[in-house]
Fold this sequence. Notes:
homodimer; Rossmann fold; 6 strands; about 35% helix; globular
Amino acid sequence: MQKGLLIIYTGNGKGKTTAALGLVLRARGHGMRVCVVQFIKGKWQYGEIEGLSLLGELVELHIFGKGFTWLSKDMEKDKEAARYAFDFAKEAVCSGKYDMVVMDEFTYLINYKIIDEKDAVEFLVNRPKDVHVVITGRGASNALIEIADLVTQMQDIKHPYTIGIKAQKGIEF
Amino acid sequence: MQKGLLIIYTGNGKGKTTAALGLVLRARGHGMRVCVVQFIKGKWQYGEIEGLSLLGELVELHIFGKGFTWLSKDMEKDKEAARYAFDFAKEAVCSGKYDMVVMDEFTYLINYKIIDEKDAVEFLVNRPKDVHVVITGRGASNALIEIADLVTQMQDIKHPYTIGIKAQKGIEF
C-alpha cells in the first residue's frame, strides 16, 4: 500500500495550482484515480478544465459554490457553499475511490475562518493512510504545515503583471 | 498574436518540473502545441511520460542524451549530448511548430558551463516573439532571471525525505 502524502503548495508566487495540475498528470500517468476539488468558483478557466478532461475518466474535477470573496454581497451563502465543498472533499478522501485528492485554494477556508482549523487538521491527520492529499493556496497555516509531509513555498521573484504584461492564455488561465 | 513569455521555475524546493507539467496541461487544454525537452536522461519516469502521452499528439516529449553528471565516466560525451539537446530545443522554438517549449532542467547546462550563458541568453531574447518558453532547474543564473517574464522560486519548507518517508509513486516519479 502506498503511504499517502499530505502535500502543500503555498506562498505568494505563481505555480501552486499549476504544480498541483502537474501532480495530477503524473499520478494519472500511473493509472491512479484523482479527484480535484476547486473551492473558488470562477478561478479555473477553460484551459485547465479542458486539459484535465483529456486525462479521461480516472480524473474528476469538481468546482464548488459561488466561491467566497470579500466583495460578495451574500457572505453567509458563500461560506455555506465553501463548507459544503469541504464536506464533499472529506467524503472523496474517505470514499476509497481515489488515490489522490487535490483541494485547490483550500487554505483560504481556514484563513478566512470559514471552517475551523482544528476540524481540518483533525480530518487530515485521521484520513485513510493511503490517500495523497494536495492542498494549495496562500498562507498555509502553521498547523497545516506541521502535519504535512511535503511543503513547498512558491515565491515570486518576477511577475509579468509587474512589468506590464497582460495575463496570457495557456499560462495564467 | 500571443506574447510569448519566458517562465522560470527555480529554487531548491520540489515542484519545478511538476509546475511545468501543469503548464503543459493548461496550454494543451487551450489546444496549443507543446514541445517538452528533457535535458537529463533518467530523471523522468513512467508517470510523467505516460501522463503526457495522454494529452495526445499536440504534446511532444523529447528526452535527450545520456544526461550529464559529475559521476559520469565520459563527461565529454555527456556534454556533447546536452549541447545536441540544446540545439534541438532551439530548433523547436524557432520552428513555428509549437506555442510552448519546455526546457526541463536547462539551468544545469549553464551552471555547469556545458553551454555558454551568453549564447543561451542571446537565443532566448531573440527567439520568435510568440513562443512561450518554460525553463526549470535549480540555481537559475541572474542573467536568465533578468530576461525572464515570470520567475517563481520553489523553496523547501518541509520535505518527506527529511522526515523519513520514501519517494512515492505518482508524486515524486
